[in-house]
Structures are given as C-alpha cells and as structure tokens.
Amino acid sequence: MDSEIIKRIILESLITPPRWGGKHTEIRNIKKGFPSNIAASNKGRKLIDKAIKELINEGIYNILIISSDLLKQKLFQDLFPLGQMIKEAKPILNSSYLNSIEVKLTKKNLKWYIDTTEDKLKLIRKVIDKMKTDNKKYASDKVSYTLILRIRTLHIIKKLIESKNYSKKEFMQIIKKISKGTNSYGGYLDIKNNLGDTQKTSIDEIERLYEYLKGELLEVRKLINKF
Questions:
Q1: Which of 37, 120, 197, 198 is the most exposed, having the fewest neighbouring CB atoms within 10 Å of its CB?
Q2: Separation between Cα atoms, residue 48 and residue 65, nearest integer Å
Q3: In the Cβ-directed half-sphere of 78, how many Cα atoms lie within 13 Å?
Q4: In this predicted model, what pLDDT tens digit does every residue of 193-214 receive, in sequence order?
Q5: How do the domains of the chain map onto residue ranges?
Q6: With contact defined as beta carbons under 8 Å apart, do 182 and 168 qualify?
Q7: Are 193 and 187 in contact (CB under 8 A)?
C-alpha cells in the first residue's frame, strides 16, 4: 500500500458526514481507522504519517485538522485565525455542521489584539519621532508591515462585527487611499514574503497609516464595549 492510497482512505474517512468535526478528525484517531496490520507496523505508521503531512500541506492548500472540543476552546480564548476562517468558509459538504459552530466576538477573545495594538502604536510613535530627530525620510519596511498588519486585523474585526466578509481588494484600496501611495503596501508584502527590507516608504506615508490605525483602534474599542 503506497501513500497515495492511504491519503485517499484518510480523505474518505474525514468526509463521511457523521464523523466530520467529531473526535475522528483528531490525528491520533485517524490512525486508529486503519487495519491493524498497517497501523501496527513501522512501515505502515511511516506511510500514514507521510500521507497526513502531505494532506495537511499540499502546494498552496492546507488542511487544518482539529477536534470539536479544541475548536470551541480556541474560539473562546482567541478569535483568530479560526473565527474568521469559519465565518468566511464555503463548505463543500456537511454545511449543517459548519453552520452549527458559534463564532462569537467577545471582549475576552479580542483582548490580546486590542492590547497589543495599543503597545505597537506607542512603539511606532517613538520610531516616527526618532526618524524626525535624525532627519530620516524613509522608514524600514518592518514599520509598514506592523502598521498594515494591525490595520488589517482591526478591519477584519469590524467586518465580523458587521457580519460582512473581508475583501483583500477592498483592503488594498483602503491602504492606498490612506497612505496616498503603494510603497507601504509593497513594503508590507516584502516583509511578509521574506523579500528583504528596501526602506521605500516615506515618513509621511507612515504617519498617515499611524494616525489611521490610532483612529481605528478607538472605533473598535467603542464597538467592543457595546458587547
């Protein structure tokens, strides 16, 4: 039996409606579903492990396998990334189970993002002031990355509160409008994709993004306080 056959068996097991989302989707229980002569042998276990790894990360696609209990626990403590993934998911099958998962925004599961955004704003304010003191005209792309990542997070939170889907195209337009250019978003992508730091974003763009993030944080705080 090769890994391709094992992958097919795993997928067929996972998409059986009564099992989807239950304890059978935990890795340790997937292994138990194979005949003992395969699961008990070293060669069989290695083939199963290899097949699972390939299924979890296949090209640009990823399969996230998580138990129902762990999913509920994570959503209670931390909204991202699972909350957004579930809200925007388009099920291929068993949509009733997906619809049954409650994704609730709370002060608790959003707290970390709000608190750390406040910390980042303080840090970036110091960076901007230091740049001005040193008469620097362009900032590190890491500053652009931090600002845009935080703006994106708050933007997604607002969309979830409004029961609307996030649009990358819309978000890019927002960043372009705020920064009045494309350098900051380009710098964000360079850092995100490990392409180096070209320091091409002007301090004026950085300040505009900073002020926008500060305003968005205040607005999101007000929305959360209504929970």
A1: 37
A2: 15
A3: 8
A4: 888 898 889 999 999 999 999 9
A5: 3-100, 107-225
A6: no
A7: no
Strands (E) across the chain are located at: 57-58, 61-62, 138-139, 201-202
Angle, vertex CA 197, rays to CA 192 and CA 198, nearest 5: 125
Residue type at 222? K
Q: What is the pLDDT of residue 6?
A: 63
Q: Where are the beta strands (DSSP E) in 143-212?
A: 201-202
Of 160, 172, 164, give the one whose Cα is nearest residue 220. 160
Residue 201 pairs in a beta bridge with 139
Going along 100-177, which residue ranges are E strands?
138-139
Reference 55, options 98, 97, 84, 14; nearest CA is: 14
Full-model pTM: 0.71
Among candidates 121, 109, 111, 122, which has minimal Cα distance to 149?
121
Residue at token pair 């060669």: 43
Q: What tens digit of pLDDT does each residue of 9-30 get? A: 665 555 444 443 444 444 555 5
- Burial code (b: 16+ CB inside 10 Å, e: under 16) for 165-195 equals ebeeeebeeebeebbebebbbebbebbeeee
At position 83, the amino acid (one-letter code) is G
Q: What are the phi and psi torsion angles at 123 (to 5°)?
A: -65, -45
